[in-house]
Specification:
about 10% helix, 7-stranded mixed beta sheet, 26 strands, mainly beta
């Protein structure tokens, strides 16, 4: 593990991080209770992390070490309950987690998270904080069902204050034969760059200002307005939800440039509908450009848990080459809670629906199926909020301990001062 101790070495380390040097490749396997492999991964990984020291912000680079191991918290997942996940631990409390999801034809690492411990002085010397931080992001790691994902080139996943670079990666989830498949899906980074056809020399045209290689990104709108959504049936309310919704759509413009548009759902211009059945609760949203945005909530009877099962979108994009955008995924396992309870998350949640469509959900509070008295039931907090609560709890505990120490010292000192006097 290396620390760029001076500005002279920092450019070299950043170059090494970018692809000239990578940690040793390691094989990671997750097995179910029958010792059948459900996830296999073989890759090298390097980390670039920015953290704060007493002398200012600092970058540190380090590799995934050869002694990194798979934690027992890794899982093959359970049908309609949880998704498979690979959790890799190394060093003094660092964890890299790959969470998988699938639809009828493809699977993906729909979310990657990295937990790093700033109290590890070998990696983070002179860190101003000793807290444990978490960064996460969606990824473009995906492959066809029953095929392995393979990427020889470097693939960077950017998170807040962290960049993870994978290389020589072979990853496969939902294994069918207890080993990597012979067939593979190659990453886009391995695709050959298009070569320009040979040209005949001709007189140079008069100098002009070069056009930018890509169009300027569209301005990102502010966070969406949080509003209430209710769905009722013959037996009363079957869905209560409070949330802000933001759509991320990647599409081609009429000039063949690819852009990602960000669209907020305006509750004041949205018509709400839905339906209730014993097995499925549906929330339907309609607006001027959105023919329908549908959220399907399912329930697992054996575990008595509800979850966001599917999202469908049919939307008009007037500036797109294909003005009608459609996307569907009915294999989600998000926003899960026990039936009768509610799911709540103050942190922003990012749900990857398809390769070109994802949804940001802000300040979500939702309950499906059993809703008593038209009120939310007991709250089940999301993991992101639980991680964020650890910091104030630790600070509060430290302050309480400090007050207790001062009080005890005061009482001892007072007792000793009285002991020095005798009654006449």
């Amino acid at each position: 593990m290396a620390d760029p101790g001076s500005s002279r070495w920092q450019p070299l380390l950043l170059l090494l991080f970018a692809g000239l040097m990578h940690g040793a490749s390691a094989v990671f396997v997750v097995k179910d209770s029958n010792q059948t492999a459900c996830i296999m991964a073989n890759f090298s990984a390097a980390f670039l992390t920015n953290y704060v020291t007493s002398s200012g912000s600092k970058n540190v680079t380090f590799d995934l070490p050869s002694d990194a191991g798979v934690l027992n918290s890794s899982s093959c997942g359970k049908e309609n309950v949880s998704n498979p996940s690979l959790v890799i631990a190394f060093g003094k409390g660092h964890k890299l987690t790959l969470s998988f999801a699938r639809n009828a034809t493809r699977y993906s690492v729909h979310k990657m998270s990295f937990v790093y411990n700033l109290s590890d002085t070998e990696v983070f010397p002179n860190a101003s904080s000793k807290e444990v931080k978490t960064a996460e992001s969606i990824t473009d790691i995906m492959a066809d069902i029953n095929k392995k994902y393979r990427c020889v080139s470097s693939n960077q996943i950017h998170m807040k204050n962290v960049t993870v670079t994978f290389s020589d990666a072979i990853i496969q989830a939902y294994l069918s034969n207890n080993n990597f498949s012979k067939e593979e899906t190659r990453c886009k980074q391995d695709e050959p760059s298009p070569t320009a056809p040979p040209t005949t020399p001709h007189p140079s045209p008069p100098p002009t200002h070069p056009a930018p290689p890509h169009p300027s990104p569209s301005p990102v709108p502010e966070s969406p307005h949080v509003d209430k959504y209710n769905v009722s049936g013959t037996n009363g309310t079957c869905l209560l939800a409070t949330m802000g919704l933001q759509l991320n759509i990647t599409y081609k413009r009429k000039d063949n440039t690819t852009v990602t548009g960000v669209f907020n759902i305006n509750p004041n211009k949205t018509h709400v509908n839905g339906s209730c059945t014993p097995q499925l609760v549906t929330l339907e949203l309609h607006s001027e450009n959105i023919r329908f945005l549908i959220f399907h909530f399912g329930m697992n009877a054996s575990s008595s848990r509800f979850f966001l099962q599917g999202i469908q979108l049919d939307m008009s994009l007037p500036e797109a080459k294909d003005p009608t955008f459609k996307a569907t995924n009915n294999s989600l396992r998000e926003l899960q809670a026990t039936v009768g309870n509610s799911y709540k998350c103050n942190s922003e949640e990012h749900i990857w629906v398809t390769e070109a469509f994802s949804v940001n959900i802000f300040q979500v509070w939702v309950q499906a199926f059993q809703v008593e008295g038209n009120k939310f039931g007991s709250v089940e907090e999301c993991q992101l909020d639980e991680n964020n609560m650890l910091i104030p709890i630790a600070v509060g505990g430290a302050l309480a301990g400090l007050v207790l120490i001062v009080l005890i010292a005061y009482l001892i000192g007072r007792k000793r001062s009285h002991a020095g006097y005798q009654t006449i």
